[in-house]
Amino acid sequence: MSAKPDFDELWRTLAPHVRAAVSRHRSRDLALGADDLVQEVRIRVWNVYTGDRNSRLKPSYYYKVVNSAIIDALRSHRGTLAHSVRAETPVGDAEENDAALIEQIGNDDHGPDALFAEHEQRARLLAAIARLPADRRRAVTLFLQGFAVPEIAEFFGCDRNRAHNLTYRGIRALKEWMSEET
């Protein structure tokens, strides 16, 4: 059984994934600071790390912890968003305050058109992934879920070069197909 990695070493491995996931998810909730979100994720990873006494958890499990920590932090923050926006609204005419509150909460980025466009893009991406050969499709799916190339290689039972080729050739094909459709 391999020795438990040092927490700083583990965090260095996870940090690029954390930064990418934070920037991806935070774009929908700009009121939550990126540093705050990274800190919450780091605390969650630390709690799981300290509870792993037998060094049984693989790095892929920590990627799942990162993703669930981001989702939990965003959910808890969204619960307080309406209250914080109302508190920031200046005291005055009640109708003006309500209008300002609606304007601050409901911006165009989250309107029906944006949601529809996001849904359409997701459907196009899933259709493009389905066009990939089976091995590339599985490698790309794992990569998009946050798995690193070494973990994909371990999953497939192959060397890192093959996992790298499957993943990045699949990503390249997706980019080409997605750009053709726009």
Present the secondary structure layout.
Layout: H1 7-26, H2 34-51, H3 59-88, H4 94-105, H5 112-131, H6 134-144, H7 149-156, H8 160-181
Radius of gyration (Å)? 21 Å
Number of helices: 8
**Weakly predicted, low-confidence segments:** 81-108
What number of structural domains do the residues give? 2
Order of helix and strand elements from N to C terminus = HHHHHHHH
Kindly describe this structure:
The structure is a single chain. The protein has 182 residues and is mainly α. It has two domains: 1-107, no CATH class; 111-182, Arc Repressor Mutant, subunit A, CATH 1.10.10. Helices cover 77% and strands 0% of the residues. The protein has helices at 7-26, 34-51, 59-88, 94-105, 112-131, 134-144, 149-156, 160-181. α1 runs antiparallel to α2 (34-51) and α3 runs antiparallel to α4. The protein is flat, with a radius of gyration of 21 Å. The N and C termini lie far apart (49 Å).
Descriptive key words:
8 helices; single chain; Arc Repressor Mutant, subunit A; flat; 182 residues; 2 domains; mainly alpha
In short:
With 182 residues, the protein is mainly α.
